[in-house]
């Protein structure tokens, strides 16, 4: 990235199907634990896909209490994850610097479960159309960013990005630009999605991208595997604290790493089909913005959805960017364990990649038992691998609608 | 207000209102002042959330058959007594 100083990462927070804090998330990720289980949110008897990545164990969180009835699960998960990240960064509520602190948040489909509930209530009693006004503030896509800003009293720039599966990483990338442009000192950046709504679940299935796996739920998400079964939807939220390096050093807080490169572009040929040409461009531009070459990249956290369209094209794009070196860079798809958390997924990838750099361990792509012959790189199959060098990682997030994002992060 | 039977109804209504608020928002009556419902906002319960309570009250007391509460009436609610007044008025009108 040009202009401004470096953007430091000083806090991490997750709510996920494999853990609701960074420590358990990392422990389970390294161990290759799947978070995919039979759907409990609704009766899945009439659906072909009966598994999902579900967040559990948050009922005692304050944001799940009834007095926060205005908060949809999508926003509540975001609040929990953002709170963790802010606590790690040592930022207190109602900071005196609130005018320079903001929230940049991504979501694919926001409060979609609230929308489903409102629709069902309306359909059941169309002659008594009293839908709570809370439906509006729960459903709106900017609810997540707003709730974080309101809870912590941040008055700086806030932005909501809704670019499907690229939303969170794009929000994070734009937050870096805002800090570099000196429009903010600190930004809570990340993404959240709670997509387990029956009508949309049905629509995903009709799109024929959902997993048709009939065996062990834990084996349903199979990125880069020849017997892949499609993507597995999941809930989750992932947030980081970004701040200018100068601001972080002035505060004396620990810097966990830096976002040194970011690029985004639009695959304009088809509303859902990825394009290798544009994926090559976005990865190349992100490396250029970080001022590095492919030889500098030690690790890649792939988009890796477990659909043939994604896995083969992303593999080919990585080969095109990295040339012969592609075979020597470990590549992980965290979606093999988490499932696809849509707008949160790119930020989960970035957090995983940063932890990997700092600990020198590439987390595995699980369920990779029968590699697709067209996917012939090192995807860290089934078991974590030590990173021979752990300085720089690249993170991809590609969304329906054509938005591609790549971030480059570096360890301290 | 002076009618003993209506007074009894009022206390029953207020008791049920306390139950509804507790059930809907998990807020016990000792945590708020039922003579100053504005202080619910100090418990981070905003005005939009209070509409959920009104919907529940309209359902539980079958006020809708009398047309429900008007926007003007809702704006004037400051206490649980105010809500009881509206319920009693709606019931006597229906």
From TrEMBL, chain A:
Keywords: Cell inner membrane, Cell membrane, Membrane, Nodulation, Transferase, Transmembrane, Transmembrane helix. Belongs to the thiolase-like superfamily. Beta-ketoacyl-ACP synthases family. It is found in: Cell inner membrane. GO terms for biological process: fatty acid biosynthetic process. GO terms for cellular component: plasma membrane. This is Nodulation protein E. Pfam families: ketoacyl-synt (PF00109), Ketoacyl-synt_C (PF02801). The keyword Transferase applies. InterPro entries: Beta-ketoacyl_synthase (IPR000794), Ketoacyl_synth_AS (IPR018201), Ketoacyl_synth_C (IPR014031), Ketoacyl_synth_N (IPR014030), PKS_Beta-ketoAc_synthase_dom (IPR020841), Thiolase-like (IPR016039). PROSITE patterns: KS3_1 (PS00606), KS3_2 (PS52004). Proposed to synthesize NOD factor fatty acyl chain. Involved in the synthesis of a highly unsaturated fatty acid moiety, which forms part of a lipo-oligosaccharide that is responsible for host specificity. Residues 4-411 form the Ketosynthase family 3 (KS3) domain. Pathway: Lipid metabolism; fatty acid biosynthesis. CDD domains: KAS_I_II. GO terms for molecular function: 3-oxoacyl-[acyl-carrier-protein] synthase activity.
Automatic annotation (TrEMBL), chain B:
Transmembrane segments: none annotated. Coiled coil: none annotated. Residues 11-91 form the Carrier domain. InterPro entries: ACP-like_sf, PP-bd_ACP. This is Acyl carrier protein. It comes from endosymbiont of Escarpia spicata.
């Amino acid at each position: 990235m040009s202009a401004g100083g470096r953007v430091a990462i000083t806090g991490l927070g997750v709510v996920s199907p494999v853990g609701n804090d960074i420590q358990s998330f990392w422990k389970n990720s390294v161990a290759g634990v799947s978070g995919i289980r039979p759907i409990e949110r609704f009766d899945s008897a009439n659906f072909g896909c009966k598994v999902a990545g579900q967040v559990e164990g948050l009922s005692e969180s304050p944001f799940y209490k009834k007095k926060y009835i205005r908060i949809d699960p999508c926003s509540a998960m975001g609040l929990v994850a953002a709170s963790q990240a802010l606590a790690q960064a040592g930022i207190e509520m109602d900071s005196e610097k609130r005018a320079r602190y903001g929230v940049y948040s991504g979501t694919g489909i926001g409060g979609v479960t609230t929308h489903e509930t409102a629709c069902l209530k309306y359909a059941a009693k169309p002659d008594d159309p009293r839908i709570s006004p809370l439906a509006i503030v729960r459903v709106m896509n900017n609810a997540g960013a707003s709730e974080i800003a309101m809870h912590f009293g941040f008055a700086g720039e806030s932005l909501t990005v809704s670019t499907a599966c690229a939303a969170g990483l794009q929000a994070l990338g734009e937050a870096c630009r805002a800090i570099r442009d000196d429009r903010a000192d600190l930004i809570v950046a990340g993404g959240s999605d709670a997509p387990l709504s029956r009508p949309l679940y049905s629509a995903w299935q009709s799109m024929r991208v959902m997993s048709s796996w009939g065996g062990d739920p834990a084996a349903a998400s199979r990125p880069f595997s020849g017997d892949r079964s499609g993507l597995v939807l999941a809930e989750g939220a992932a947030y980081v604290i970004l701040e200018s390096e100068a601001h972080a050093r002035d505060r004396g807080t620990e810097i966990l790493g830096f976002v040194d490169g970011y690029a985004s572009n639009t695959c304009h040929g088809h509303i859902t089909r990825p394009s290798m040409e544009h994926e090559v461009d976005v990865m190349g531009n992100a490396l250029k913005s970080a001022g590095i070459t492919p030889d500098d990249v030690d690790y890649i956290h792939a988009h890796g959805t477990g659909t043939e369209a994604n896995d083969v094209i992303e593999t080919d794009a990585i080969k095109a960017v990295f040339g012969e070196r592609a075979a020597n860079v470990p590549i992980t798809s965290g979606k093999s364990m988490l499932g696809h958390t849509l707008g949160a997924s790119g930020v989960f990838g970035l957090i995983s990649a940063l932890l990997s750099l700092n600990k020198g361990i590439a987390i595995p792509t699980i369920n990779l038992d029968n590699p697709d012959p067209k996917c012939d790189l090192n995807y860290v199959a089934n078991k974590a691998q030590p990173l021979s060098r752990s300085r720089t990682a690249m993170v991809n997030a590609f969304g329906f609608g054509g938005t591609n994002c790549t971030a480059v992060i570096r360890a301290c | 207000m002076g009618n003993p039977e209506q007074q009894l109804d009022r206390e029953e209504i207020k008791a049920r209102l306390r139950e509804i608020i507790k059930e809907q928002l998990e807020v016990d009556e000792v945590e708020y002042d039922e003579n100053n419902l504005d202080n619910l906002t100090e418990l981070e319960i905003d005005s939009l959330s209070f509409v959920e309570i009104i919907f529940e009250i309209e359902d539980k007391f079958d006020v809708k058959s009398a047309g429900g509460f008007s926007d003007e009436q809702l704006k004037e609610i400051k206490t649980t007594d105010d809500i009881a007044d509206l319920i009693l008025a709606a019931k006597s009108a229906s």
